[in-house]
């Protein structure tokens, strides 16, 4: 393959450099890595693709997540993996610190801090801070894990050097210890998390009141996800550019409706709501029925296992009805038999809708259910997710889906506890599908000559740290659709490579 690329490179070397640069902005990462070995000219172009976004490993997530007995049984393999990733990361940080032309390429840094032997990590942080002082073109910085945790020195290095920084995120419980107000160029600030259950079951309940309502530089912020006690503590008057708001670690939703009226430019809203806050949430949705006209994405998460009260279901349907801009909707709220028809009627009125997650109470997924859904589903869907405590009754259940939604790029089906069916059998008739998820597993889809071929299941690590590019071109909404939803069970998540 490399030899063929070398021959093509020699034959096309007369093309203008700016054209080649444009070509390389669209090629996949794997292809770009191959091009590093083609020629000196291709190496320079591919370098900008391969190292534009880099991941720095402090330890290995697989090792940190493994239970003690699993780790001890495979200790050698885990230690080799950790050493390999740490060595690779050390080499990248060293090159950033000593090669200005290489440092200028880097636009995004993700830190995966999962050292199994403790959270001190002074040497690792020191190397990272030295490299940050060379990253003058950095746009995005995200820290995952707390072994080691980010420190004020990391923030100060970003603030002093990275004047183009637009996005910052770090683990929720580390934020109160960081001087976030020094990051004055941000457009987006958030905390890193895998599932919204991480927030609700653990860190959310343990976060002291004095560690909420953190101060950040608001003037340029467009996207905000921070721990606050209530909406009244969010400085909406200081957020003139705000378009994306996530309220996923908040104690109370009091005054939500009137306060959101102050943000007419809001385009994306995500809310986690405990059962005791349901009345407040749905009062706010009723209050905002004629507002938030620019909203293109709405996410409503809850841990309630039962069905919504009928009046709440009707308020939600009324809020959704006829929203011209709404493209993406996902919710873990469930509906009683009879009330789901008003919800589906509202979905049918969303002519721009192309991304949907529906958490069904206990329906079996058969052809009758799918046909009922398709009567209300817009045909231009790109990404669809359905979860139910019912079962999958037939491999032909989805046969009508592909004819009704020919452009569907992503499908996820979760039937908790039901027996697995070979996923290929569910996809007969699919035309443009790129990724399929079924009962906790993701597969890349290859459609050739009417035949469906699936990749091996994504690793637990790829699932946990998935990003829009994992879902393929034109399907970036799939990552938003699955954000915060549990995909694997806890047993499946732990210690998987």
Automatic annotation (TrEMBL):
It comes from the Eukaryota. InterPro entries: F-box-like_dom_sf (IPR036047), LRR_dom_sf (IPR032675). This is F-box domain-containing protein. It comes from Rhodofomes roseus.
């Amino acid at each position: 393959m490399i030899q063929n690329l070398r021959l093509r490179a020699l034959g096309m070397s007369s093309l203008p450099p700016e054209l080649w640069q444009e070509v390389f902005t669209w090629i996949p990462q794997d292809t770009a890595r191959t091009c590093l070995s083609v020629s000196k000219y291709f190496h320079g172009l591919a370098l900008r693709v391969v190292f534009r976004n880099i991941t720095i490993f402090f330890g290995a997530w697989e090792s940190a997540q493994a239970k003690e007995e699993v780790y001890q049984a495979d200790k050698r393999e885990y230690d080799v993996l950790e050493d390999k990733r740490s060595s690779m990361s050390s080499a990248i940080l060293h090159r950033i610190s000593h090669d200005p032309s290489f440092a200028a390429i880097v636009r995004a840094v993700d830190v995966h801090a999962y050292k199994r032997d403790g959270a001190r990590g002074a040497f690792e942080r020191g190397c990272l801070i030295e490299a940050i002082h060379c990253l003058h073109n950095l746009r995005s910085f995200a820290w995952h894990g707390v072994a080691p945790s980010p420190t004020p020195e990391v923030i100060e290095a970003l603030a002093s050097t990275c004047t183009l920084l637009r996005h910052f995120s770090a683990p929720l419980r580390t934020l109160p210890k960081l001087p976030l107000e020094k990051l004055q160029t941000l457009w987006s600030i958030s905390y890193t998390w895998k599932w919204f259950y991480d927030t609700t079951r653990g860190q959310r309940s343990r976060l002291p009141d004095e560690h909420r309502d953190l101060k950040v530089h608001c003037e340029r912020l467009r996207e905000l996800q921070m721990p606050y006690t209530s909406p009244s503590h969010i400085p909406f008057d200081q957020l003139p550019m705000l378009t994306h708001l996530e309220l996923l670690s908040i104690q109370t939703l009091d005054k939500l409706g009137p306060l959101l009226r102050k943000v007419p430019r809001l385009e994306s809203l995500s809310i986690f709501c405990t059962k005791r806050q349901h009345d407040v949430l749905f009062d706010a949705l009723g209050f905002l029925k004629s507002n938030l006209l620019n909203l293109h994405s709405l996410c409503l998460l809850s841990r309630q296992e039962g069905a919504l009260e009928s009046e709440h279901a009707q308020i939600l349907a009324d809020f959704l009805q006829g929203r011209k801009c709404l493209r993406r909707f996902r919710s873990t709220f469930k509906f009683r038999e009879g009330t789901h028809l008003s919800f589906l009627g509202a979905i049918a009125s969303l002519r721009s809708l192309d991304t949907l997650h529906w958490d069904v109470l206990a329906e079996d997924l058969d052809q009758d259910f799918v046909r009922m859904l398709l009567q209300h589903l817009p045909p231009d869907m790109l990404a669809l997710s359905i979860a139910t405590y019912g079962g999958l009754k037939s491999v032909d259940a989805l046969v009508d889906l592909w004819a009704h939604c020919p452009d569907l790029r992503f499908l996820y089906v979760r039937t908790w506890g039901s027996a697995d069916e070979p996923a290929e059998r569910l996809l007969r008739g699919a035309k443009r599908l790129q990724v399929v998820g079924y009962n906790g597993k993701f597969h890349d889809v290859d459609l050739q000559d009417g035949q469906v071929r699936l990749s091996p299941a994504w690793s637990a690590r790829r699932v946990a740290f998935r990003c829009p590019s994992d879902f393929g071109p034109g399907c970036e909404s799939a990552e938003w659709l699955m954000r915060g939803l549990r995909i694997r069970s806890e047993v499946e998540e732990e210690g998987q490579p």
